[in-house]
Design goal:
2 copies of one chain form a homodimer.
Chain A (H helix, E strand, L loop, with lengths): L16 H29 L3 H11 L5 E3 H8 L3 H13 L3 E5 L7 E5 L1 H21 L6 H18 L13
Antiparallel strand pairs in A: 1-3, 2-3
The structure holds a DNA duplex (30 and 30 nucleotides).
Chain lengths: 170, 170
DNA sequence: GAGCTCTCCTTGAACTTTTAACTACCTGAG
DNA sequence: CTCAGGTAGTTAAAAGTTCAAGGAGAGCTC
């Protein structure tokens, strides 16, 4: 009989061949795609994909602004990383910081007109890149499956359904 | 009437709401997952996910070695990035470089015993992390779909079915 | 076999990300 | 009010990545 049953000592649950193939494809595809989009945006918009995503989130937010912590959460990055990113975007003139009146520790990241401009200029090229790399190659069923799968994975990794507890959102 | 029809000037093929949801889920999941695995491996193996992947590829190769270019290709990273990575892994004593006898420009990256060791120690924890984050949460059908989808996407981005033209592989 | 081009791999500099403090401010208990 | 502990955001330093350039050898042509 198996006498060990703790997570750390029992027999590892290795991936079988098919699972390994799936996992490798996942790694390959995500690596290639992120790289591809990074280059596309670096070339056409002068910024990496993550930074572009930040501008998009701001553009979609009321008054084109978001608290730093909130933006970090939506973009799934750390506050530290966001601080650096916003500093860079500020240098480009695409984002501006504003103090939060309600909380003196708080900062808003605000999309500037120049930032809006850059988005409008580069969004078409970016969607096209995403379509060509992903949507154009998948059937409707596959797109649906992809959405569902990714939703499940993201949900599982979300640091405890975060965000439900931000004062500003009450 | 629409009078323009060239790629650069025609109306952008925007993503509809459902497509946007799919795309966002994709970004969220891949960002969270890569971050999760990076932390897991940094904590337990003292290296980022990509570096771990390099050791795995070497471990699976004949004589635990691979030409630099070949390794870069399998791992889907640039040669430059690989050079830096191997330099670091070499410092850790997990990889060693060897000259290629057939081509004086060439280098082999070779997995050392210490590298093998580190893999054996940390592989169980890593598979478990992957399982918990991905496979345990998906049905068999979803796993299959994920594999197929990722294979398609990777295939589309592969720089021209690369690798078919490496002399060593003839 | 000289010269031209291409490939293999590395390098330094610029840039981005991580990690671990750290400042400043808010909040609630007493 | 005061103080302990938590939160918002930043920062310096270390680590990793990208980009452009370059050294050195291979390989092809004449």
């Amino acid at each position: 009989m198996e006498y060990m049953n703790t997570a750390s000592t029992s027999e590892p649950r290795w991936l079988n061949d098919e699972e390994q193939r799936v996992w490798r494809s996942y790694i390959d595809a995500t690596t290639l795609l992120e790289d591809h989009l990074d280059r596309q945006l670096q070339r056409d918009a002068g910024m990496p994909h993550v930074y572009y995503g930040l501008l998009v989130k701001l553009a979609e937010s009321p008054h084109r602004r978001l608290r730093m912590t909130e933006l970090a959460m939506y973009a799934k990055i750390t506050r530290s990383r966001l601080s650096h990113a916003v500093a860079r975007l500020e240098k480009n003139g695409w984002v501006r910081r504003e103090d939060c009146p309600d909380d003196k520790r708080g900062q808003f990241a605000v999309l500037t007109d120049a930032g809006q401009e850059v988005l409008q200029q580069t969004a078409p090229g970016h969607v096209e890149a995403v379509r060509q790399a992903v949507f154009d190659r998948l059937t409707t069923e596959q797109q649906k499956a992809l959405g569902e799968i990714m939703r499940i994975v993201a949900e599982g990794l979300q640091p405890s359904e975060a965000g439900a507890d931000l004062p500003w959102l009450r």
